Amino acid sequence: METEPVLQMRNIRKTFPGVIALDDVSFDLRRGEVHILLGENGAGKSTLMKILSGAYERDGGEVLIDGREVEIGNPRRSQSLGIGIIYQELNLVPHLSAAENIYLGREPSRAGLPFLPFIVDRKAMNGSARELLAGLGVNLDVRRPVGELSIAEQQMVEIAKAVSLDARILIMDEPTAVLTEREIRELFARIRRLKADGVSIIYISHRMEELFEIGDRVTVLRDGSVVGTRDIAGATKPELIRMMVNRELTQQFPKVAAPRGKEVLRVEGLNRAGVLTDISFSLCEGEILGVAGLLGSGRTELARAIFGLDRIDSGGIHIKGRLQRIASPRRAINLGLGFLTEDRKTQGLVLPLSVRENICLPSVDAFSRMGVVSRRREAEAAAKYRKDLRIKTTGLEQRVVNLSGGNQQKVVLSKWLVSRGDILIFDEPTRGIDVGSKAEIYELMNKLTAAGAAIIMISSDLPEVLGMSDRILVMHQGRINGEFSAAEATQEKILHRALGDTE
Amino acid sequence: MKKLFVIILGMMLALIAACNRDQTASDGRPTVALVVKTLNNPFFNDMQKGAEEAARRLGVNLLVQAAEREVDVEKQMQIIENLIQSRVSALVITPSGSKEIVPAIVKANQAGIPVIILDTRVNEEALAAAGGKVAAFIGSDNQEGGRLAGELMVKALGGRGQVAILEGIPGHETGDSRMKGFRQAVSAAPDIQIVSSQTANWERDRGYNVFQNMLQAQPRIQGLFACSDLMALGAVEAIRAAGKTGSIVVIGFDAFSEAREAVRNGLMLATVAQFPSEMGRQGVESAALLLKGEQIQPEMTVRIELITRGNAEGSSQ
Amino acid sequence: MTLKTYVAQHGRQFGTLVGLLVLCAVMWILTPHFLTISNLLNIAEQTAIIAIIAAGMTFVILTAGIDLSVGSVLAFSGVVMASLLQKGAPVGVALAVGVLAGFGCGTINGLLISVGRLPPFIATLGMMSVARGGSLLFTEGRPISGFSESFRYLATGRVVGVPMPVLVMLTVFFTAWFVLTKTKLGRYTYAIGGNEEATILSGINVRLYKTLIYGICGGLAGLAAILLTARLNSAQPIAGMMYELDAIAATVIGGTSLMGGEGNVFGTLVGALIIGVLRNGLTLLNISSFAQQIIIGLVIIVAVLLDMTLKKGRR
Question: Are strands A423-427 and A337-340 parallel, antiparallel or unpaired?
Fold first, then answer.
C-alpha cells in the first residue's frame, strides 16, 4: 500500500572539517513500515540519524514531517516531534526501576492535593508502565532496577519509553547486536506489533538475514550518498552487498583451510566455581576453533580464565606443550596469547590515545630501552599494520575515539599482531562492524592461520561460526556441550546444543 | 557560552578595580604595610582599626594584608615578599611563626625596609643567627598576663584544687609565655594541681572538644585557664553541656567583647585584656617616626589588664 | 609535524598560556611593580612549592585518581628530614630521607588503591589525616627550626641570579615532561587514566604502575617539603594545610581532565603560575585576602568552563 510519507529528508548535506559526511541524501519513511538503513561503517547512517535526533545540525537540505517542514535543533525538539531512538548502547539509569526509567523527568504526581505535586505517585507510575509493556507483549516486574534486567528486557524498557513519548518514528540502531536468537524472535514480534499500530521504524543493521525477515524497504548508503532504495521483496543479498561495498564479494565467508600444525594449547579439566565446569579442549597451529553458545553460557569467561584475568579453581592450561600457570594478562601475552575482547570501547581501546599508542600498548616493552620509548620504532610498527589492515585514519596520531567501529576493531587486532600473539582469542570479532570490514577481518584470520597462528573465535553469529571455523565447540551453562567438525555442523545442531540438548 | 566568559571576565576585572579603589595613588606620602596573622580574628581587626586611626592622623598610606589562615606562615612570607616588591616604606608585622618569620625579615632588611614587630615576639636566637634585625617590638607582656591569671585562679580556688590548661599552638611565643606565667603563679600554691594541659589550636570548636574530653578524664577539674578567649568560650559551652556551669572557674585571655559578656554573666571568672588597637596605633606611629629619621625605643610594652565582673562593664578598648 | 597541526592538537595548552599572558598584561597595566625582573623571579620562587606538588598531582590525576594527602605528606617529610638535620645527619642523607618519607607515604596510598581497591579519594583522605597526625606526634606539635647555611642554600641560593627553588621547579617539570611523553611509565599513566581495563588487558602491570605513580606524587611532596623547610628555616607539623587544593587547582586550570587520560605537565606549570601571579598581583594591588579567595575561585571555574567548551568545539 502506498501512503503519504511520515518523514521525508531531502538533499541533506553535512560536512565535518575536511570530510563530507552526507552529500545530497534523500530518504523517506512511510507510515507503518520498517525501513532498513544499510551501509558500511562510515557510510553516513549514524550522521543521518543524529540529524534526526537533533544531536547534529544539518548544513543543507530539509526535513519534513507529515509534509510540513521542521527544524530539529535539539534532542528535546526531536522528541516532541515524535521521534524516538533506541541506541545500541542503552541509555538507562541502572539503579532506577523500569517504571522510573520510563517516566524519568515526567513522573506522574498526585494532583489536586496541596504540596503533593512534588510527590511521585508510584502506584500510578508502576501501573501505567506495566500497561505500556504489556501492550508490547512484555511481562516483567517494573519495580526491579533495570540493571538487574537482561539486555533484551532493557531494550524493551527503552522501546516502552519511546512509545510512552508518543513516538511515531522509531529509530533502532543495531538492536539485535546484543541479543540471543530467541530474544531476536521476540523483538521482531514486537516490531510487528508496533508496525500494526502505525509506528514507522528506521532499522539499522548489518545482519543480512534479519533484513529480509523484518524489513519492508531498504536504503543503501555508501560514502555519504544514497546508492539506492529497494523493496525488500525484490532485493537479493548479493545485490545489496554489491551496492554497499562496490566490489563483488564472491563469498561471504572466504574460508581458506590452513595446514594443521602441532598442538599449541590444551586445556584440561578447567573449573571456576559457578562459572566454568570441567572444560577440556585443544587447539592446533593453523586452526580456527569456533565457540558458540548463548549469552551467559561461559564463553567469554572461558577466554578470561585462559588469558589470566580470572582465577581458576582447578585444571591445567598447556601452552605449546608445557603446563603453565597464567596469573596475569602479562604472563599470557608473554606466552603468545592475544585477546580481542567483545567490547572494544570499554576493554579493547584507550579512547583518548592515538592509533599508534593503542597499537603498541601491549608491546611498549619491546619498543623501549631503559624505560624510554622509541616513538620512531613504534610508528614503524604501527604504520605497517595500518597499511596491512587498511585502517582508515588521518594519521597514526589520530585519536582512536574518532575512528569508525570497523577501524577501531582493526586497531585492537593490530595490538595483538604487534605483540606477536600466535594464540589469538577473538570474542565477537565482527560485532557491530560493516560488511566490508568484516570481510577484511575474515581475510586476516585466513592469513594468520596460514602463517601458523591458532585462533579461538567466540561468536553469536552462527553463519560466521559455521563459515570460518575448522572445529566448533558449543557451550551451555559453563560446560562444553558438544563439539563438531566444520563438515558436520549445522545451525540447527549448534542451536540444540546451545539450548542444552545433549542429542 | 563565549558570552558567558566575557561576562565573567568583566565581572572579575570590575571586582579587581573595585577592590583597588581605595588604594590611594602614590602621592609622596610614605606607605606603611601592616601584616597581621589573619583578618578573621577580632583581635587583629582591633589592631587594624588602631593602625588605621594613627595612619589617618599622621598622613601615612596604610596597607593591611593577612593570610587566610592564622597559622599559614608560608603565605605570610609570600605576602611580605610581595610587599617588598611593591616598595613599601616600612613593614609592621605580627608574625604567624616566631622563627618562620625570620627569613622574611632578612629579606626586608636586604631591601632596606625597616621592620616593626607587634604582639608576637620573634625568636631572638634565630634572628641573630640569620643576621636579621627588627627596629622595635611592641606588645603586651604575655607572661605577666598569664601570671595575673594564675594569681586570680589561686585566689578563686582558695589555694587548692585541680586545674586544667588549654594551650595555644605549641611553639607560638604568645601562648607559651602566657602558659609559663600562669604555671609560675600557680606553682606558688602547693595544693593546686595542674591535672591536664593540652593544645586546642587557638580554635573555638577545638576548645569545646578538648575540654569535653578533659572533663571525661578528670571529672573533678575546678579551674580552667585557656590561653585565648576563643578556646575559653568553646570550653564554656562544653561546661554547659556537662551541666557544670558555675562549678568550674574559667579564665581566658584577650578580652573579646564576647568574653567580657561571659564574664558579666558569670560564665567566666575573668579574662586578661590586651589592647591590640594600641599595638596597631603605636606600630604605625613608630614607623612614621622611623621614616622621619628619628630614634625609637626597641621595646615598648602595651598595658595589660585583668577584666573581672567588677570592671567588665566600664572598661573598653 | 607542522606548526598548524601542532597547534590544533595542543590548542588547549596554548589557551592556558594565553590566559597567563593576559593576566600578566592586566597586572602590568594596574601596577608598576608587577613587571620587574625581581618581582617575576619572586613569583616563580613563590610558585615553586605548589608547582612541584602539582607536577606529582598531574601524574595522579592523569590516571583518573586524586591525592588529597600531599599537604600532610609534605609536613611529615619536612619534620622527618628536619629532625635528622638537627641530629647532625649529613645534608644529603637528610634530603634523601625526606624525599623517601614522602615516597613511602605515596606508595602506601598507591598500595591501598591498587591492591586494596580503595577509591583514591578515601585512601588519600585517610593518609591526609594519618600523615598530619604522624607529624604532630613526631614533633609534639612544635616546629623544628634552625638549619645550616648549606641546607638553607636550597632556598636562598641563586645561580646566575635565578633562585634555587625556581631551578628545582624547572628541573622537576622538565623531568616530568620527559617521563610523561617519552617513557613507558608516562605511556602507562595516560593509558590507565584513559581506560584502566583495556590497559590491564594489554598485559600491563597496572597495580605496580599505579603504586609507583602515587609514590612519585608523595616523593614530589617530599621534595617540596625540603624547599619549604629551607625557605622558612623551620619545619612545621602544620605546614602544607590545603596545599592539596592548590595543587589540584593548578592541575585542573592547566587542562588536565579529572576523568583521566588527558592533560600534560606543561599546562600544570602554567596553571600554578596563574595562581602565583594572581596572588602576587592582588597583593601588590592591596586587595584583601578575602576578595583574593573569591577571584581565585572564579578563575578555577572559568578555566574549567573554557576547557570544556574548547573540547566540545573540537569534536
Answer: parallel
Cβ neighbours of A364 in C, within 8 Å: 184, 187-188, 204
pTM (whole model) above 0.80: no
How many Å apart are CA B169 and CA B201, to the nearest integer?
5
Contact (Cβ atoms closer than 8 angstroms) between residue C148 and residue C90: no
- The model's pLDDT over A136-148, given as tens digits with 9 standing for 90+, comes to 878 888 898 888 8
For C195, the closest of A332, A350, A362 (CB atoms) is A350
Whole domain around residue B261: which residue ranges?
A: 142-273
Q: Does domain A5-245 have CATH number 3.40.50.300?
A: yes
Inter-chain touch B74–C49, beta carbons under 8 Å: yes
Angle at C172 between CA C171 and CA C174, to 5 degrees: 65
Task: Give mean pLDDT, residues B4-19.
Answer: 59
Neighboring chain B residues of C163 at a CB cutoff of 8 Å = none
Percentage of residues of chain C with pLDDT beyond 70: 94
C263 to chain A: closest CA residue: A352
- Chain centroid, CA C308 distance in Å: 22
Nearest chain A CA: its distance from C48 CA (Å) = 27
Grid coordinates representing C290 are 578575602
**What are B207-254's pLDDT values in tens digits?**
999 999 999 888 999 999 999 999 999 999 999 988 898 899 999 998
The ipTM is 0.86
C224 CB neighbours in chain B (<8 A) are none
Indicate if B147 and B266 belong to the same structural domain: yes
Would you say residue C6 lies in a domain?
no
Picking from C152, C236, C301 by the largest number of B CB atoms within 10 A of its own CB, the best residue to mutate is C236
Domain ranges of chain A: 5-245, 262-336+421-503, 350-420
Instruction: From chain C, pick out residues whose CB is under 8 angstroms from the CB of A342.
Output: none
Chain A residues lying within 8 Å of C208, measured CB to CB:
none
CA nearest to A351 within chain C:
C194
Chain A nearest-CA distance from C214, in A, is 18
How many domains does chain C divide into? 1
Out of 3.40.50.300, 3.90.25.10, 3.30.1330.60, 2.60.120.260, select the CATH number for domain A262-336+421-503. 3.40.50.300
Of the candidates C26, C31, C40, C20, the one whose C-alpha atom is nearest the C-alpha of residue C286 is C31
d(CA C41, CA B85) in angstroms, rounded, equals 11
